[in-house]
Amino acid sequence: MPGEPPSAAPDLARYLLRLGDDALVLGQRLCQWITRAPTIDEDLALSNIALDLIGHARALLTRAGRLDGTGRTEDDLAYGRSDREFTNALLTELPNGDFAATVARQLAYTHYAVLSYETLALCADPDLAAFGARAAKEVAFHRLHADRWTVTLGRGTEESARRMRDGLERVWPYTAELFEEDEVVRRLAASGTVPSPAPLRETWLGRVTEVVTEAGLTVPTPAWSATGGRSGLHTEEFGPLIAELQSVRRQFPGGTW
Fold first, then answer.
1. What gap in Å lies between CA 232 and CA 227, rounded to an integer?
2. Residue 40: which H helix or E strand, with range?
3. Dihedral of alpha carbons 204, 175, 153, 31, sign
4. Where are the alpha helices (DSSP H) in 155-237?
5. How far is 5 from 9, CA to CA, in rounded Å?
6. Quick check: 163 and 153 in contact, CB under 8 A?
7. Which PANTHER family has this protein been placed in (predicted)?
8. How large is the angle between the packed helices 158-171 and 99-120, nearest 10 degrees?
9. Which pLDDT belongs to residue 256?
10. In terms of Cα–Cα distance, which of 132, 229, 243 is closest to 174?
């Protein structure tokens, strides 16, 4: 990779794999809304958001495969790994629940992703910076969608507000993991290769709090925080999701279309 110390390549591969897994898994979850969304417009909106996320995953997984020395392609990484080999944040794999729960998950993720990609756009590597700039602009539209629905549901009927409140309570314990740092991230941040996620949390919280407050609701204060996704420890519902994602490839290994 241009201008990058060879010693940083394995760490960067793991970092990009995590971001790629986030996008791929969340994209797969949103695909499950196709033909099931509350309206035709939302069916199309969620489908388009999923397509953007899968596009991000393709770019990130391709780069990770080049850096990790295995020569694996984006398809190898998406379809050839077991569930324990995925390193996505647990938030992205949570079941869709009702529409309000999905909106809550989108609110948390999109505000984080915009900040993450905006800082990635400032890194020294030109290809990575270009990807970050493009992805930040695309996810900004996803964020607007989540913001609008959070306010609409929160200020709608008593029932829609209850559902939105329940959705926030459901997903909030999974948000802290987005900003966790381990030795991989610390080494990359110390070398200036990629930004640290931890400093983004305060800005993220301020922004989502503004939206939730506008919706007439309150940001939850969970008594616990989920973790483990970055290490391959996932929720009970993750196995079936990956089985669905990989079903055609596993049924026809080596098949081409």
1. 10
2. helix 40-67
3. positive
4. 158-171, 183-191, 200-214
5. 7
6. yes
7. 1,2-PHENYLACETYL-COA EPOXIDASE, SUBUNIT C, PHENYLACETIC ACID DEGRADATION PROTEIN PAA
8. 50
9. 74
10. 229
Q: What does the pLDDT look like over 18-50, one tens digit per residue?
A: 999 999 999 999 999 999 999 999 999 999 999
At residue 194, the pLDDT reads: 94
CB atoms within 10 A of CB 146: 23
Measured distance CA(108)–CA(102) in Å, rounded: 10
Return d(Cα 91, Cα 107) in angstroms, integer.
11
**Size (the chain), residues:** 257
Taking residue 186's Cβ as centre, other Cβ atoms within 10 Å add up to 13
Helix, strand, or coil here: 115? Answer: helix
Closest CA to 105 of 40, 154, 49, 170: 170
Amino acid at residue number 220: P
8-12, 13-17, 61-65: least confidently modelled range: 8-12
CB 93 within 8 A of CB 237: yes
Place of tokens 């959705």: 167
Burial 207-233 (b: 16+ CB within 10 A, else e): bbeebbeebebeebeeeeebeebbeee
Nearest CA-CA partner of 106 in 173, 49, 21: 49
Which residue reads 């993720």 in tokens? 109
Distance of CA 233 to the CA centre of its chain: 16
Question: Would you place residue 254 in the very low, low, confident or very high pLDDT band (cuts 50, 70, 90)?
Answer: confident
Residue 5: the pLDDT is 45
Residue 257 pLDDT: 67
- At 133, which amino acid appears? A
Ranges of H-type helices in 68-125: 74-79, 99-120
